[in-house]
Amino acid sequence: VVAIVGSTGAGKTTVINLLMRFYDADSGSITVDGQEILSLTRASLRRAYSMVLQDTWLFSGTVYENLAYGKEGVTLEQVRAAARAAKIDRFIEALPQGYDTVLRDGGNSISKGQRQLLTIARAMLLDAPMLILDEATSNVDTRTERRIQAAMLRLMEGRTCFVIAHRLSTIRNADVIAVLREGTVAECGTHDELMRRGGYYSELYRAQFDAAQDAG
Question: CA torsion sign, 160 to 22 to 28 to 9?
Fold first, then answer.
């Protein structure tokens, strides 16, 4: 688990765009399993990733079609298994037509938390070896947040994960934290290492912790 942290505009999204080859680096190199990504086709590289973003993306179609999107030849039972793993199956089965229920207007008729769990189920179904996760628990209640975080932990198992972290308390157990500042990696290490260092990361962490204490 690689956490990517930094203030707004520090370059977190740029790193993700480079990993996915939405654009290529001017210098240096990015490798996956020792292979330069410039030697791979964009299509094959992107098939190796699944993504769960803060801004959920659903289209006007059935629940089944939204979950199966990007995975050819998927069966209804496979879709149901992914929904169970994401803990969204009971909600789907309670809909008027279950998995055949049409989501209109990009899923705006259901809650943000439900939309997020659907996108997690979709990522589980894709079963890609690498995962890009933009922390997606903002603007939901505490109970829904716990459900989303539990589903994300299941999704992360056995995968290389890049986590764009907004709340630093959620990535304390990351294997490595890359701290971005003004477009460069200012610090890199585990949470404990970075806190002992007393640098920029510890400033960000303490500022968030103090803000949370004040809000409480």
Answer: negative
The residue type found at 28 is: G
Tokens of 59: 């289209």
DSSP run (H or E) holding 205: helix 200-215
Distance, in Å, from the CA atom of 210 to the CA atom of 206, rounded to the nearest integer, reads: 6
**Are the CB atoms for 87 and 147 separated by under 8 Å?**
yes
Using one digit for the tens of pLDDT, what is the confidence trace for 141-178? 778 778 888 888 888 899 999 999 888 888 888 999 99
Tell me which DSSP letter residue 199 carries: S
113/148 Cα distance (integer angstroms): 7
Q: Look at phi and psi of residue 183 and say left if phi exceeds 0, alpha if psi is from -120 to 50, else beta.
A: left
DSSP letter (8 states) at residue 62: E
Query: How far are the Cα atoms of 95, 171, 173, 176 from residue 190, in angstroms, in the given order?
Result: 43, 10, 8, 5
Extract the tokens encoding 205.
Answer: 């962490």
CA quadruple 145, 49, 15, 59: dihedral sign: negative
The answer to whether 180 and 191 are in contact (CB under 8 A) is no
Q: How far is CA 181 from its chain centroid?
A: 21
Question: For the whole model, what pTM was predicted?
Answer: 0.85
Give the number of other Cβ atoms within 10 Å of residue 146's Cβ. 12
Which band of pLDDT confidence, cut at 50, 70 and 90, is reported for residue 212? low
Helix axes 142-156, 112-126, angle to 10 degrees: 10
